[in-house]
Amino acid sequence: MNDYIRICDVEKYYGNAAHVTKAVDRVSFQVQKGEFVGVMGPSGSGKTTLLNMLATIDRVTAGHIYYENTDITELSEDALSEFRKDNLGFVFQEYNLLDTLTIEENIILALALQEKPKKEILEACDGILKLLQIKDIRDKFPYQVSGGQKQRCACGRAMVNHPRLLLADEPTGALDSRSAQTLLETFTDLNRTMEATILMVTHDAFSASYCSRILFLKDGKIFHELVRGEKSRKVFLQEILDVLSLTGGVLTDGK
Q1: Residue ranges per structural domain of the chain
Q2: Structural contact between residues 47 and 41, judged by C-beta atoms closer than 8 angstroms
Q3: How far apart are CA 66 and CA 85, in angstroms?
């Protein structure tokens, strides 16, 4: 299988000559098409910085990031903007929905901005609403639905374009236990039924146990990797907790 995304010796520094902070230190890894990869580590380990560079929100100081044959570190700001729009989907801890639009309108906004045919837009939205089990709230506004439903709407908005990569930054952080579990099952469904490639940053072991592979960061470097394989989620969760105990990070063993 060819590598879908390649991160090659990526470094990120902040500050000036007098005081330099190395947030990401020569990180290299690959993501295959259809993988569900988690990135974990204590606060300050570099995981969000890494996500922001993959999201083209932040530039690398050194190294390269390839999406198939495209080296995004070489693209201009205009080209990056187009690349981001055409290839990436985002789900964050904050839902970032527009309160004046219905759930359905929030999902189809990206397609509408691309001036796609109305029939194509409605068909794509209908499929996503059904998959995410939020078809019955399509005409409601964000303030009328629960946090879990808002986050599933955010997933729908991110996936309706069939992005090359779905990036999720602490997506369960604002959710209660039940909504968090529903969202993680939604990610699993998107990963299986739409072959969505997902990269999720999380500090939470329970959330990470839904991934197929986990990279552990500490002091800007990858220090360990776990692959779930055929293990049960319960067994995988315990393995994650064992690794996290070495990082000194705050542990969460379930929701």
Answers
A1: 3-244
A2: yes
A3: 16
| Integer angstrom CA distances of residue 238 from 73, 203, 243, 254 | 37, 15, 9, 11
Tokens found for residue 64: 């390269």
Q: How far is CA 207 from CA 47, 120, 142, in A?
A: 15, 34, 24
**What CATH architecture is 3-244?**
3-Layer(aba) Sandwich (3.40)
Q: What residues pair up with 66 in beta bridges, in sequence order?
A: 6, 71
Please report, as a single letter, which amino acid is at residue 63. Answer: G
Query: What's the rounded Cα separation, in Å, for the pair 156 and 126?
Result: 10
Distance CA 22, CA 252 (A): 27
Per DSSP, what are the bridge partners of residue 32?
3
Amino acid present at 10: V
Q: What is the pTM of this model?
A: 0.87
Q: Tokens 């045919």 identify what position?
A: 117
Mean pLDDT in consecutive groups of 10 residues from the start of the chain, 255 residues: 82 86 93 95 89 93 94 94 88 86 90 79 88 91 92 88 89 85 89 90 94 95 95 95 76 46
Structure tokens at 200: 């999720």
Q: Are 123 and 185 in contact (CB under 8 A)?
A: no
